[in-house]
Design brief:
single chain, 120 residues, mainly beta, seven-stranded mixed beta sheet, 11 strands, 0% helix, 57% strand
């Protein structure tokens, strides 16, 4: 079993910054893609940013230039640095990881979510 534990959420003023972290632990061979999603009340969950094991990144248009995703493979950890935050960034942020287990199977796991509220 693999667990993803997120941290770093909280209340931040518009224009401020926040860094989210997500650490994976448990029985796994390796981690392929890691990503951050978010879900605002009444809306569908949406992809914010993703990063492959080799470091290739992808961002949704609304966060390009403001958010940066990174990872430390040796720590099985992914980060999301969020700058110039806007009220519309308010949401629960979820970590997602595609884990390769010993059999070679790929399994997707989700974290429990961490709330980010952007408000003055």
């Amino acid at each position: 079993q693999v667990q993803l534990v997120e941290s770093g959420g909280g209340l931040v003023q518009p224009g401020g910054s926040r860094r989210l972290s997500c650490a994976a632990s448990g029985s796994m061979f390796s981690i392929n893609r890691m990503a951050w999603y978010r879900q605002a009340p009444g809306k569908q969950r949406e992809l914010v940013a993703s990063i492959t094991s080799s470091g290739s990144t992808n961002y949704r248009d609304s966060v390009k230039g403001r958010f940066t995703i990174s990872r430390v493979n040796a720590k099985n950890t992914v980060y999301l640095q969020m700058n110039s935050l806007k009220p519309e960034d308010t949401a629960a942020y979820y970590c997602n990881a595609e884990v390769v287990v010993g059999s070679g199977s790929r399994i997707g796991y989700w974290g429990q979510g961490t709330q980010v509220t952007v408000s003055s």
